[in-house]
């Protein structure tokens, strides 16, 4: 009888399905993706963006010249003095004269 009691738990564990953690993870990812698409009111994910089109040479030249001009202006400008801080000293003003708060 003792052998029978030991065999029962083993058989009970043997009928349990093993968890496939990778499949569960993928199902969860798909569920979240579906929720996001639903919130964005999209039927399917947008297509992957392709490579950016090449900029025209005129635009690239204008951008580079603007950057160079800003660098030259920054080099020619004197470093700014830090602005005066208005509260260098702490001044205390009593809100009640002595004796007014008693009462």
TrEMBL record:
Q: Which organism is it from?
A: Setophaga kirtlandii
Gene3D superfamilies recorded? 2.60.120.970
Name by which UniProt lists this protein? TGFB1 factor
A Pfam family reported for this protein in Swiss-Prot or TrEMBL: TGFb_propeptide
Q: Name the domain of life this protein comes from.
A: Eukaryota
Signal sequence region:
none
Tell me the gene name: Tgfb1
Indicate the segments forming the TGF-beta propeptide domain, all copies.
14-78
